[in-house]
Amino acid sequence: MSVNCSLWQENSMFVKRFAFSKFSEVAEHCFLLFALVLLMFLASLTGNALIALAIRTNPILHTPMYFFLANLSFLEIGYTSSVVPQMLQNLVSEAPGISREGCTTQMFFFTFFGISECCLLAAMAFDRYMAICSPLHYATHMSRGMCARLALVSWGVGCTVALGQTNYIFSLDFCGPCEIDHFFCDLPPILALACGDTSCNEAAVFVVAVFCISSPFLLIIVSYGKILASVLAMPSPEGRHKALSTCSSHLLVVTLFYGSGSVTYLRPKASHSPGVDKLLALFYTVVTSMLNPIIYSLRNKEVKAALRRTLGNKKVLTQG
Prior knowledge:
Blueprint: E1 17-20, H1 27-57, H2 64-81, H3 84-92, E2 97-99, H4 100-133, H5 138-141, H6 144-170, E3 179-180, H7 187-191, H8 199-232, H9 237-265, H10 274-298, H11 301-319
Parallel strand pairs: 1-3
Antiparallel strand pairs: 1-2
């Protein structure tokens, strides 16, 4: 869809407001996607909120593993909430758009929550490594203070990177066209609209992606390589099964999150396609966030029991 840029900027030189491209000119397609995304968004919010609440209200889950899982749920809620409401509005609006300031804010929070999650997933892998490979020193090394520091570092790295990237990108001038060929203010489609040479900005995005996606992922791979070696050396089949069951949920979440993120931010610019990028964005902003609570609750008896107790208490309070 072509957009008249005079509708979206205050003067002829610098774009002050961006338009989003429509998913389809067929209204039925947009409403169908709207309903699907809304259902997944509500399922994501409900599932992650329930897991965080179950961990908070059940003392048996006050352990490092579940502390990190609660943090992950909070990050997922923020991650999807920074993107999906705008996406839903774009799907039903006749002239979907966002101000430059709104776009800056959305990019900051999307990057902040996404980078923080990358780091937190690495911290969760380190926790599993210590629990399985060094069980005698686990309580000492993974104390409450250490877990809090690892979580704070994850959130701190996310905030620092988000501030740097957002400021670097929006220090550029945007002279038009003003249409973002995407659902929200993601880094690559915004850079495509900037005036002049953006090669340094693109290099910065790539370096950050390598540092914040590839490096944590490498740490996760190394941790799980050592975990696998330790598990295979266990004499007890029950012990092996329990260890593998505990780790498999985290590995599946890591695969979904890092897989879609790597394809989006680490593949060459020439291979980018707006259609593919939109599908990937839909996957890593909505689908993975919806699946995470399902993966953890279905494969973890303690989480399932805690969720049943939490939901049971809510029913009692409601009836009372």
